[in-house]
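<instruction>
Derive structure tokens from the sequence

<record> Sequence and structure tokens follow
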Amino acid sequence: MPSKQSTGVPTPRPAANPSLRAARRAELDRRAVLKAGAGMAAAGGLGLFGPSALPIVGRRPAAAQGEALTFWQFYAPDGTVASQAQWFEDTVNGWNEQNETQIELVYVPNNDYMDGTRLPTAFASGEGPDLFIISPGDFLRYYNGGVLADLTPYLDQEARDDFFPDVLATRMVDDKVFGLPMEVEPMAMYYGRQAWEEAGLTDSDIPQTWEQLLAVAEQLTTDQRFGVLFETSPGYYQNFTWYPFMWMGGAEIQTDATTSGMREQGAIDALKFWQDAVNTGVAPRTVLGGGAWDAVPNLTTGYTAIQNVGIWAISALAEGAPDFEYGVFKLPVPEGGEYTTDLGGWAFVANSQGKDPEAAAQFIVWALGSMSEDSVQRGVDWCTKAKSDIAPRKSVQDSITEQGLFTGPLQQFAEEIFPGGRAEPRVTPEIYKSISDAIQATMLGGTDPAQAAEQAATEIEAFLAGYDGAPNL
């Protein structure tokens, strides 16, 4: 490389290093694949490409003096929920007041973040943020791509043991921690009490089975209102909300390292259940607002009487429709099935190729993984004031209980809905896509559920046959 004061006279080039030349060629090949993958993601609207298409594309230069680390998420600044934006701003300001390395919040709208192309495209071009948040469903894309920093050296054993094991497991590989969860978010069914009463329903009509749910939804359906709502848009969120129905029927994404369980009857029945809801007219083909995760525009406007949504809807309804009266009940089960729900939630992660991965990792542990009183209270505030969530740490949940902060629907979630839940699975983008295609084909495309399930299983097994990344969980 010429010096800054080059004389313009060419310097003799050293003999080519075969290893370096191969590495450079591989990097160029990876960049080409990344660009192509990002292009396909933009065309498909899913933000998807395989883990092999998200490799390290070169470490970014160390942070210049005064250059802040960027933290991408969909809460702040200027997020749609003021209390959540304030929590993020307070957290970052608390760090910035105590540390020379500063952090800057970068807001990305929720839909663009969850199922758009902005985040994967940024990494594809080597310009990924220094800090960001991911769900378990998208963990392997970034872990297999080599862009998640190991947080283990900064996390003491007491703090690590403070996290509920199942919650932390989907953020770990080879006993190393690559992300710290900020919350646990079980799924349930919400219903509008006015619609319920207008249909002549009482508490005794709370559905316990899938068959009962469809029957109650039919009673609630009018010319102006659907009876029940499930997510209809393809994305990680739709998969996340569908998994419990598959599990309750006894099926799994994988039965072993190379075999898919998608062709099992439980998966077929879960696909048919959502298909039946749409085909009978009790569930819509499209949703309002940001999606089926967005309770206020769908439930409070009367667009639907029942909505499949998570614990976060409690705080969303309190802020966006404080006078709306609603109830909550557990996910119904298939005949002979066993209740479960999906325990989702986002985690802070650091970019191993960012400007200062060490400082980024230290920030995450300081914010979410310290045994200090401030860190514990920060978790309490997120789960009870900024948002409505189950805590991912024992100390935080104990403090919530001691302070008597879980009442009403939150208490119902903690006592009735959360127990028996399972951590959101982590899968590669390829496996996610096969399942997503099956849901879309059956729910909205009219494909026979058994045929769609078989297609998904075949695709997943073909992928698993050559997969050598971190295990799907």
